[in-house]
Write a structure and sequence with these properties.
The complex is a heterotrimer. By secondary structure, chain A is mostly helical. Chain A is built from eleven helices and no strands. About 5% of the residues of chain A have low confidence. Chain B folds into two domains: about 240 residues, Rossmann fold, CATH 3.40.50; about 70 residues, no CATH class. In chain B, helix 3 packs across helix 4 and helix 4 packs across helix 6. Chain C is an all-alpha fold. Chain C has a domain of about 190 residues: MetI-like (MetI-like fold, Orthogonal Bundle), CATH 1.10.3720. Chain C has eleven helices and no strands. The longest helix of chain C is centred in the last third of the chain and has 38 residues. Chain C is about 75% helix and about 0% strand. The chains are: A mainly alpha, B alpha/beta, C mainly alpha. At the B-C interface, loops of B face helix 1 of C.
Chain lengths: ~300, ~350, ~325
Amino acid sequence: MAIQSPTVDIAAALVRPTVASASRGYWPSVGRRLRRDPVTLICAGVLLLVVLSSIAAPLLGLADPYKTSMIRRLYPLGSPSHLLGTDELGRDMFARLIYGGRLSLFMGVMPVLCALLIGGALGITAGFVGGKVNMAIMRVMDVFYAFPSVLLAISLSGAMGAGTENTLLSLTLVFIPPICRVSESVTTQVRGFDFVDAARASGASALTIVRVHVLGNVLGPILVYATSLISVAIILAAGLSFLGLGVKPPEPEWGLMLNTLRQAIYVNPVLAALPGVMIFITSICFNLMSDGLRAAMDVKA
Amino acid sequence: MDSLLPLEDRGGPAQPLLLATGLRKHFPVAGGLLGRSRKVVRAVDDLSLSVAKGETLGVVGESGCGKSTVARLLIRLIKPDRGTMVLDGDPVDEPHGITVNELRRQVQMVFQDSYASLNPRLTIAETLAFAPKAHGLPAAEARARVRDLLDKVGLDPANYAERYPHELSGGQRQRVNIARALALRPRLVILDEAVSALDKSVEAQVLNMLVDLKTELGLTYIFISHDLNVVQYLSDRVLVMYLGKIVELGSVEAIYGNPQHPYTRALLSARPSMDPRRRTKEAPIQGDPPNPIDPPSGCRFRTRCPFAEDVCTRVEPPLADIGTQAVACHMRVVGSGHSKAATP
Amino acid sequence: MLLYALRRLLYLVPVAFGVSLLVFALVHLAPGDPISAIVPPDAPHEVDDKLKEYYGFDKPLPVQYFRWLAVTLTGDLGTSIGTGRPVAAEVASAFGNTIILAIAATLFAFSLAVFLGTSAAYAKSRIVDRLVTMISLMGVSVPHFWLAIVLVIVFSVEMGVLPPMGIGPENSTGWRLDWPHLKHMILPTIALSVIPLGVVTRTVRSTVKETLSMEFVTALQAKGMRDDQILRHVLKNAAPTCLAVMGLQAGNLIGGSILIETVFAWPGTGFLLNSAIFRRDLPILQGTTLVLAGFFMLLNLTVDIIQTMVDPRIKRG
């Protein structure tokens, strides 16, 4: 759950054409290489399954994930009526794990997406404009960098109080600085290329240059980096809920389920560990997908 | 779009196309406790030049002497600390003159690194159409112009327009770079080591093409290179730079036939000779250029000059007109105090 | 070198200022006003106002900030609302426990990571490389607080060999270097070390591999140098990158330990922070965050300076 050192070197990838000579555009060739990568395809498949089933959960004929039952508490795995048993309040585990994907995935993907928009825009601006603007933006980011990411998320959530919105807000704040830093460094690298100077010499406006010449070259690395943050975000969001700072009960959410099931570790240990397995699987898949994307886009990190 | 038609000559043939006076660029060097020391790299120091319409001005000098900075100053990719520029009678970036953008319509540049100067994500057609489109040319006209440009630089549009830079050879890429510089129909093209990275055979082809384009389009060139032979072949006048300053300036015949500055002579005698009887016996110039952060006092060349005397340390020699050419050396200034100088 | 260190230290001043602003803002992010946490809802208005005046909450925010900053700079972090003890004292005792755990986890993770990463980079067989890659992937993907629970289930609940929580035997007041205390450390250390283990293994593997493919290694081999001598050259070249990543990980470990300490009821800063959040003990929340961020900053500074000393390519001007 640690945000890794965001040093990305795209200069090499830009200058040295590694795309096979028969290739046409950049993105089609990325797509083709992704299609030839079985690990990434499998991970994408698993994630798709988790996402689709959680979205379509009401249509799957599952038990009611909110329906408690005092007599059916902590049924073991493989019970005839409850395939994966029941939780500490007698709710069906299978249904709760599937429904749990909704909030858990949302809390993982959404903050990274928001941070990608805000941090990316800030970073590209800082990198392209340079000078004092760069100083101002990056020094503010440095302040956020002075906190370990988990501490920042917990302190912010702790101060603002539990709840989905607050968690989203604090996680977004946690992920803006690293994305901004990567965007800034990548943009600064691209800006140093002569083709940007040539574009400036043509008298085009800064916005046009960024749109045509910068975005196409920096989006790949930034996207790759952002996908690598999704798994961090999923674990971090689950961690916040686990501490009681995220999603509030009785919503099904994997981190929160881990928390409430802790009382069951002596009675039904396997059951208590189940939600973590879901977090683990999605997190692995996002990490492998990000690696595959990185390889396909030929980003050195 | 009439704004993208070739620009008319306005001031008549006698008026210089570009006149730069007292250009100076010092780059601050990071250092010191707070990261802002007073140390600067004196990349270009009080440099003045003029380019006549239709001529080719060659700029030579060792690497690191500020040649590329001059190029970027002239097209305003970097802002000079000091100095003025006048383009065909219009002061640049001044209240009653033309804007930097208008300057860039008329002055374009070809960069040295043919790969780094092409966006790897864009096709050749997209790269060439970028500037015309940015100036408001409709898509159809831009397409036509791309075809025309590729034709001009000897690349078959049907074959090359949709390719990506990495699918071209170095020579082809440099042709594309030249085409891009011509896309706005400029009057002055600055060629910054534009052929230096090419194989010799390809270099010759591109040079010939440049000569043809110049007559065809009525262009003026500033040709920057460290290759003295190429400069001699292409230029009408030659400017020799040393550590951000002009040391000698004159017609190509004068500079190559009768060089006056010791540095120019050293450069020229360092050329490999095709004649075995005129073999270079000893290195004509010793050592590396001094650090431009802290250039020598007086004449900047004195640390490597075999004729350096006391006066060279104390007084900076002015660029003096000696008839055929201008030279910045105390030996050529009457009454300068140098033992080889004529006395008044 | 000294100049570089000094410059870095100076550069830290504005960042530290920003950090203090952010930490100060934490209290004001809290819903309602900070007083409501201490005052019972049915208290008369006068009490409310008196307390506000006492704590200075009636002043405008900038005034409050600079007063708070001035007091904080003297080392006074305020008083805990929950226990009534000085925040500085509470944080100090917890901080020690956190550091002990962090050091153990750091040592464990880094030594294992260097070994695994180097052997993977050197491995002739793909199986070793694959295995190490798998381990590092697991490390960066596992929710470590879940792993902590699993460890408790396996080693405490099922096997009963290691204690599930606490810093030591029941009547223990603090950490001591003896077997019963060490036994309590084993599970938290493992749980805490998985993330840095994964990240650092990955970095070591790729950096060593990249260095091995450099031409100077071929030159050394051509000169007939022994493999173990070459390894020294390789590690020396790979060190700066790895050190940078390790430094960041060591710092993040402090953050990560919040969750682990909660699972194991380890009386460190994380545990303190967590309980402070639930008692809405804002001075403790503020104080702990400030101390941890300050520590993280100094750690980063140290790593930075060490890195410059190790890597001759970085300018020290």
